[in-house]
């Protein structure tokens, strides 16, 4: 099959598809850069107000809770969006059991998590309170319908939900969190603000899209969906664990202050990676549709997607290094001067993550998410071994070991994904 690289991209993809991609991408930029821009401003505000030590504690609790969230989502976020995109007419058949599954999982995990907090932190009331505040995140996020909107390619509604959530987080944090002693209050505000975005999307679902949620307790149907979505759960869970292993390790090995010095630039890097991969978000439902309905167009679009992802990744890494010396002090203040060198290294992790999605998204669309899970498992195991070797065998600085371990491991993951693409997708054309 010819590559047709000499033709205009609109001719290769098709004007209608190109328009859909442009709309999805445009609204994704508004949603992520605009909506989640408020979320990042909230993070910067907390880093300044709480101080490095309490911000490190806040980030550690947030990371642990976010990982537990994967037990609530159960892969629904990506699996549900893909299934809706495949057949929008039959979407309610997919939505009702999956939303029921998420709500039930949210209640269950919230109960288990709350009991664990009570038992583990009896001698540390502040930690117990901070973790308790984040526990409600497991409930509020289970009601979110952004995966439904993504499947229908209603990215404008996702933007509205994000603005509702993240603007309220910033507003309430600014009003009620004024000093280091308000760290526990910040965790409750963070969790409950998601309700506003959930309510906004539920109203749109009922009033504008004219759809109705009907709880489905058919165990057989739910189990059939779960057997497919579980691969996304494992893959995303391992990826999330791999991305946040540095904070988890540092939370046990170094002081809260050092965790804060690392977390501040690392949160910025992860936020930049999200913005850099917005094209993947825009293309996901379209690639899902093309893979099952117009396979040749899927291959052509996937090729362009990989090339663009590489370009964006390299631009992000180089630009981040050049901007680091003024960007970090500007955002976090002079007390985070030690974060500059950290940022100059981990920005390349964001660059590599951007390149990675050029392979991971087409692999997930093609139903090969179990292989993606294996690649993520490699990331977790290899990073753990490399990090421990650097600090205990090579005697490297712990913070720098966390940074360099991410870069080396991510290169290995990309190589594995490239092999999977070559073997299972490209060679099947």
Strand runs, count: 0
How many H/I helical runs? Answer: 17
> What ranges have pLDDT less than 50 throughout 5 or more consecutive residues?
1-12
Helix content: over 70%
Which outline best applies? globular
Note the gap between the termini: 8 Å
Q: Which structural class do you get from the secondary structure elements?
A: mainly alpha
Q: How many domain regions?
A: 1
Report the order of strands and helices: HHHHHHHHHHHHHHHHH
Strand content: under 5%
User: What integer is the average pLDDT?
Assistant: 83
Instruction: Please compute the radius of gyration using only Cα atoms.
Output: 21 Å
Largest sheet: none
Topology:
Layout (H helix, E strand, L loop, with lengths): L8 H5 L1 H59 L2 H11 L4 H30 L4 H11 L1 H4 L5 H6 L3 H22 L6 H10 L1 H15 L10 H35 L2 H21 L1 H16 L1 H38 L6 H27 L3 H24 L5 H28 L4
